[in-house]
Amino acid sequence: MSGQEGHGSKSKVDESVLVVDTSFGSTVGMLGHEPRVETDSKSHVEHLQVNIATVVADAGLAPADLDTIVVGLGPAPFTGLRAGIVTAKALAYATGAKLLGQDILMPQARFAYRQALNQRGTTSHTDQPDQAGMKTRILSLAVNDARRHQLYFRLYDDFGQADHGGRPLTPMDIDYPDAIANRLAGIVDEYTASDQPVQVVISGHGARRYEDNWRALLPEALVSGESFLDSGAAGLALMVESARSREPDGPEGETVEPLYLRRPDVSVPNPLKHVVKS
Amino acid sequence: MSEPVVLGIESTCDETAAALIQGDRLLSNVVASSMDQHARYGGVIPEIASRAHAESFVPVVSRAFLEADMDLTQVDAIAVSAGPGLAGCLAVGVSGAKALAWAANKPLYGINHVIGHIAVTQLQFGPFPDDTLALIVSGGHTSLLHVGDISRQVDVVGSTLDDAAGECFDKIARLLGFPYPGGPHIDRHARLGNPKAIQVPQGLTKGRAGAEHPYDFSFSGVKTAVARWIEGQEAAGREIPVDDVCASLADSVATVLTRKAMAACRRFDSDTLVVGGGFSANSQLRARLQEAGGQEGIKVRIPRIELCTDNGAMVAMLGVNLVKAGIGPSSPGFSIDSAMPMDTIVM
Ligand SMILES: [Zn+2]
């Protein structure tokens, strides 16, 4: 695979772009090169910065050469996600590199969409009307494992016509697989009720683990547990392409903050006593 | 050679802090606290604290440089608290510090937060004489340490076998219905009450337990005893004399801490006691230690309040000591240690 297959990428060849993502394990790499991937999400403090140093050195670069840092914002479990984001922010502060944040569900949906097209042996869904003359729509559900039997997810549509991001059909959210499948089946029903054939693709870390939950309501869905970040340099390119397609024009840019989507586990305790009246 | 400049970064609990020190000169000291966010829960919630650290890390560090009119290229080293503390909080500070150190090509020291509480007293009182004793008192720690060489040799003389002194205060403050953090409320009420009004146990001071643990502490019995006493008063339909409860509690805890610290100084023939940690802001303890030190001929070094609570200066000051002693930096892959032993100075 090469890093060049991003569609509509505005990447300048001579620009140094570091990608850091800790939404699942960790992936760090320089655009155009193979990333270093760790599946253990408990060793970020020890390994993340060492891996960054390695990929930058392997690309023949020094910290000061970094032009842009693209960091994964999740949604993902907390501790690992934070390590990646604070690392990227500190690097950007120290090197002056531009910092772009990117949620991982949008590139994941694009990745799955392209995989689905490849599987059908076509490059665009617009050129293949079915027998009734309707073009099959690909609905791409991107997920990430949230642990505790839940998934982070978002549903997208229409990547084929959009180099500037897919059309999200739902907000980003966290829920149990059965509830997500229910919601998705409802959306599919609406399309089929209006004679629109759809193909559902469910992908990302955790997608395969809940295959039975999907199959119960969506027997025809394509399910893949592969993350776009498992696809080497191409995955990095997709991450950068997605970040650039959303890059704001304003000088302050956007805030780069973690997508937790889950509130901290806390409860307000009952005071034991109310001796003091004030 | 000019004195080394060190950036110190702190994120062990609910304070995100950064400071710059050159030699023994404090150039800047910036602290962002998430305390207010924890108040309604009656204690520090690790996930809320960790989120706050991640948000505050770069703003706090950049503010420290701004106030010192410096930039990252001008520091000789970076030091960061690597433990003991809340794991999720430590992970933020150490990850950020590692990124800064790599980006600016600076040596990085992952240091022991508790030893930082000792080191910071140098800002106010200068270097340590030989055989300095240290009393560390906070919400998480109550320890007596012997400082042979702040960069190389710190030994545990005694520590709490159960609750920390600050923790004991927090628990009783909750019992009395004070908002979190309760320490300052107890302090204020204690000034108005009679310290001998109620009997508060002084753990490990008497009999066999006292002889076996001359420099150790136990505060878990204090909470139980105070709780029972309050229940008894309520059952009898009497009003709770809050001022007296606070005064008796503060007196008991300050007495035990002072007595054991003085005993340890005598044992190590030390003429200097340094005091650190958030609980050393307690006014009863400060007064009692100074008074006893005066009587025993022991110099008691209690820093001003903003150096007692968690801050970046304590981390930077220990860093300065390590740089000047020629101690090598931590390896790039060093870990955090939420239960870092007191005699580990640097990772
Ligand atoms: Zn502390």
Protein model, in words:
- The complex is a heterodimer of chains A (278) and B (347).
- Chain A has six helices and eleven strands.
- In chain A, the strands form two sheets. In chain A, strands 6, 7, 8, 9, 10 and 11 form a six-stranded mixed β-sheet that branches.
- In chain A, helix 1 packs across helix 2 and helix 3 packs across helix 6.
- The N terminus of chain A is likely disordered.
- Chain B has 347 residues and is α/β, with parallel strands linked by helices.
- Chain B is globular, with a radius of gyration of 20 Å.
- The chains are: A alpha/beta (278), B alpha/beta (347).
- The interface between A and B is large, with 39 and 45 residues.
- Bound molecules: zinc ion (ZN).
- The site of zinc ion has 6 residues of chain B, from helix 4.
- Zinc ion (ZN) binds next to helix 4 of chain B.
A few lines on this structure:
Chain A contains six helices and eleven strands. Chain A is an alpha/beta fold and 278 residues long. Chain A is globular, with a radius of gyration of 20 Å.
Explain the layout of strands and helices.
The complex is a heterodimer of chains A (278) and B (347).
Chain A: E1 17-21, E2 26-30, E3 36-38, H1 44-58, E4 68-72, H2 78-95, E5 98-102, H3 105-119, E6 137-145, E7 151-157, E8 167-168, E9 173-175, H4 177-193, E10 198-203, H5 211-217, E11 222-224, H6 232-245
Parallel strand pairs in A: 1-4, 4-5, 6-10, 10-11
Antiparallel strand pairs in A: 1-2, 2-3, 6-7, 7-8, 7-9
Chain B: E1 5-10, E2 15-22, E3 25-33, H1 35-38, H2 46-68, E4 77-83, H3 87-104, E5 108-112, H4 113-119, H5 122-125, E6 132-137, E7 142-149, E8 153-159, H6 165-176, H7 183-190, H8 207-212, H9 220-235, H10 242-267, E9 272-276, H11 283-296, E10 299-301, H12 305-308, H13 312-324
Helix pairs in contact in B: 2-3, 4-13, 6-9, 7-10, 10-11
Bound molecules: zinc ion.
The site of zinc ion has 6 residues of chain B, from helix 4.
